[in-house]
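Lab notebook, bench 4. Continuing the backlog of folding jobs that were queued last week. Each job is logged with the same field layout so the records can be merged later without manual cleanup. Today's entry covers Deferrochelatase, a 429-residue chain. Filled in by technician R.K.

JOB TYPE: sequence-to-structure
TARGET: Deferrochelatase
LENGTH: 429
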Amino acid sequence: MSRPGTSTASGPASGTSRRGLLALGGAALAGTAAVGLAGCSDDDKPAKAAAPADRVPFYGTHQAGIATPAQDRLAFATYDLTVSGTVAENRAALRQLLQQWTAAAAAMTQGKTVPGDNDNPAAPPADTGEAYGLSPANLTITLGLGGSLFDKRFGLAGKRPAALADLPKLPPENLDPERSGGDLAIQACADDPIVAFHVIRNLARIGRGTVVMRWSQLGFGNATGNGGGKETPRNLMGFKDGTRNIPGDDTSLMDGHVWVGDETDQPWMRGGSYLVARRIRMRIEAWDRDFLQDQENVFGRAKYTGAPLTGAKETDQPDFAKKAAGGDPVIPADAHIRLAAHENNGGVRILRRGYSFTDGIVPATGELDAGLFFIAYQKDPRTQFIALQRKLGAHDALNEYIQHVGSGLFACPPGARAAGTGWAQELLA
Ligand SMILES: C=CC1=C(C)c2cc3[nH]c(cc4nc(cc5[nH]c(cc1n2)c(C)c5CCC(=O)O)C(CCC(=O)O)=C4C)c(C)c3C=C
Ligand SMILES: [Fe+2]
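JOB STATUS: finished
OUTPUT FIELD FOLLOWS
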């Protein structure tokens, strides 16, 4: 992440400190050359400004961070608006916040500091600084709007999509209200943990006086440099997780299951998606005492290869009809994949984008507070996540080892189309 005005293709601008110069990594320097050339002569410009490999375009039809291949790290946070004015004043404050957040997000994803950074020794810097000198590491920043935003405060009740109805109770959940809900949500994903964290911190800082952070969650996958991107990542139960996920580059599946289309009752959501987040604790100690065959029966897949119990390779299609010699199905009736598979749910699919988490221990029990921060994107949670979770909650063998302890549902509007446009502009017009 480079500071504005401090570097060009030909070298640092006047006033760059030696410390700032040293901090500029090669990727950040190259990226700045591509995006921040104001004041350079034509000779200074690269022949062709190819998109650098470490950054994901911010502007577009859809928000980045949904179809984007999952990065190594997650910083997720929800925020509540603290406004107390008239509807018009509150709406104006929300509009201004989202404009500032959009500009900051656009800058950070392209390796720049949040706008307004300065060298004034008498003022706090606009950017908190922990990502100076780092590349954006494929940072994506995705905004979600919670159902509570559509109450009386902003006059938005008539614009609440039916699909954003509050999630019903989904037993056997045991939700902590302090890890649930929120007016706004930010999903920041990057291949560097500090770059992702830097986002949720700086957006809180920009919004001071208008928003407060409600809860947050850090998550991790496996590092890109350690097989990430080639191997299906494993969850903390040791199983490959994501084998039969929707591939983000399959436009037909994305249009069919993930992107909101003309079917919506709220045109401002066209091109958007609905994010369900569930903090799911795993009873890791109990799981680690379970024998291998039972663990594999719980999922319906082999632990090491990831193959369905009816196949030999991870990519083999599960055969849900196959019976063992005694007549029982090879993939048990309560196996997670049997219950969740689209073949057994009228074609229903979701895009999963979860991350592992570990947050010390649960004081009451001394057990690890660890598990899966489950994130799923879909066109309509009523017919997708909720329908699937009702079935899993009632029958899944995995329930013995997990508990849903946090929750959120957010409408992710379409992408900001071009510089100068803000997130959710159509909603707030
Ligand atoms: C409501 C939706 C789902 C929840 C909640 C959920 C929790 C959860 N899942 C795993 C581990 C695995 N899930 C796998 C597959 C899978 N899971 C869901 C949905 C939910 N999972 C779906 C739709 C699927 C695909 C099923 C299929 O089509 O075969 C797998 C298998 C590998 C894979 O395909 O990804 C694993 C492993 C955990 C640990 C968990 C809660 C902690
Ligand atoms: Fe699952």
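OBSERVATION: The chain has a mean pLDDT of 89.
SIGNED: R.K.
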